[in-house]
Amino acid sequence: SSTIRVQSWSFCIKSRFYDGKYTEQRACIKFCFKIGKNATETFKLIKLAFRDVSLSHCVTFDWFKRFKEGRISNEDDHRPGRPSLSKTNDTIDLVRNKIRNDRRLTVREVANEVGISIGTCHSILSNELDMRRMTAKLVPTLLMEEQIEHRIEVCLELKNRVSYDPNFIKSIITGDETWVYGYDPEIKVQFSQWKTANSPHPKKCRQVQSNIKAMLIYKQVLERLREIVRRKRPEVRKSKSWFLHHDNAPAHSALSI
């Protein structure tokens, strides 16, 4: 165990020398220059003090020359860093074209096709192209122009009716249904696309339910509904002025029964 402690202590001392050897030895070179030593004498003293971790002959003489010419700092000069060779205008245009052809590609897929790293690809999409991954907005159905106009007309008609009959809304009773899917529907994340901040939000029509769907015990449900209306809304039942609106009927094709 004593051998292990000695080896560990020796490793810590050597690591400390390696971590600060550059600035520490440059300070020593600067001190030798200040007291009148020449470059050869300075190198011998550095070699004597730091032994196997000392600066080389060329580096010692180079820094001695710098201090002799008036350099003050013994730190490295600031370096701007190596320029990125992959984030070029050609690469940015290539990424833009890949996204335009298929906006559902992932960052990894685009990076593999273009031949750049995932980090560079994500930086190009986020910073240079100002794109974000956005999920599609689910809408009940993708309507045609005339269907949209018809919906507006119906909404205006209902608004006008409420304006002169405030109790009209209270006479509406809504219902829903149970759907049985015969397949695995696509989730919203799987339909997400790359879009800029000013581009329109993608839309996806809600998928049509399976052909094996069935309205379950519909007659019994209506009988229970009639009894509940009789007990909880007797004034509506007596006037026979209430409306049953099912959520399964689109507004542009619903029929009054």
Automatic annotation (TrEMBL):
Gene Ontology terms for molecular function: nucleic acid binding
Domain Mos1 transposase HTH: 26-70
Coiled coil ranges: none
Signal peptide residue numbers: none
Pfam families on file: HTH_24, HTH_48
The protein's name in its UniProt record: Mos1 transposase HTH domain-containing protein
Phylogenetic placement of the source organism: Eukaryota, Metazoa, Ecdysozoa, Arthropoda, Hexapoda
